[in-house]
Amino acid sequence: MAWRIFLTLIACGSMMACNSDNANAVKVNTTPEPVQSESVEVQAVDDNLSESESESESEILTQSAPEPECDLESVNLLDFVPWQREEGWWVGEYTFLGADGDPNVSASWPYRYDHYRGFIHLEVIGNSIKQRNVFLYPAKNSSECDSVEDVVGSGICGDNGNEKVFSADQSASDCDGNLSGPFEAFGMTLSTTTTLIGDDTVLYQVRLPDGSFTQNQLTTLPPNDTRVRTAQGFFMGSSTYASYYRERKVTKEEFVQLLEETRQEYNILELDYCGYDSGGNPSNVSCDEHFGVALGD
């Protein structure tokens, strides 16, 4: 179950050999000829060999010329249209489905996944991207509460919602705007990659230490400051979840306002604001510390 919680959140050259059989490139007349003629013929062969060898050497040099190296430190991700469009403040409506296609039900996070909300700040800093999220969940339906204490923290089941924070960082992996970065979770280091596919499509992938993928996430960027993300989750080759995110870009002021309105709507206790990490454990950070900015300013 911890896997599904974690995975809610939320990218050659060949050497070409040049073989020129110059010894057979020119036909030498074997019929006896005057010495003068034979001498001219041999000179012609030598000239042809020399010219062919020169061309071959030039071709080899051209083919083996190394590609210019990519200086990752000099990459500016804002030179790429998708990152220009993705940087900023986002709010979204989310749905998270389990392997059976129904809204996810978690034994360790007793809140609703059919419709919940996310608030994301994505900041581009040179060749890196810093992403900070907080996800807000409505209270569990009262009819589904085993007890009023079926909550995380000090709330009441069926009355109080809750929220979790998530962080992710990636840096340029090449000079084409693609990204990669490690992600530490559950005592393992997972690898993440982000691949740009044109100006309106982004593919994000997470892989386990054995190289098998555990998430494929596709982001589509329509030309209206919105984005749609769908994610497929896997474990041991089997499908474990699917998610559907609909998000829109807002100003920081709108972000803060909508965050506060959703907290009131979901009746989230103030002491739970940004209170839990992706695994449902205490985050031990304030919202300002998590986002790295003063949200109240």
Give a written overview of the molecule:
The protein has 297 residues and is an alpha+beta fold. Helix content is 20%, strand content 32%. The chain contains five helices and ten strands; from the N terminus they run αααββββββββββαα. The protein has a ten-stranded antiparallel beta barrel. The longest helix is centred in the N-terminal third of the chain and has 29 residues, at 35-63. The chain is globular and about 70 Å long. The protein starts with a helix and ends in a 6-residue tail after the last helix.
Output the keywords:
297 residues; 5 helices; globular
Compressed to H and E, one letter per element, the order equals: HHHEEEEEEEEEEHH
**Side-by-side strand order of the widest sheet:** 1-2-3-4-5-6-7-8-9-10
Instruction: Please give the radius of gyration in angstroms.
Output: 30 Å
**Average of the residue pLDDT scores:** 83
The number of helical elements comes to 5
Q: Unreliable stretches, pLDDT < 50, 5 or more residues?
A: 1-47
The beta-strand count equals 10
Largest sheet: 10 strands, antiparallel, barrel
Bin the strand percentage.
25-35%
Distance N to C terminus: 38 Å
Please state the overall shape, judged from the principal axes of the Cα atoms.
globular
Determine the structural class based on helices, strands and strand pairing.
alpha+beta
Please estimate the helix content. Answer: 10-25%
Provide a short characterization of the protein structure:
The chain is built from five helices and ten strands. The protein has about 300 residues and is an alpha+beta fold.
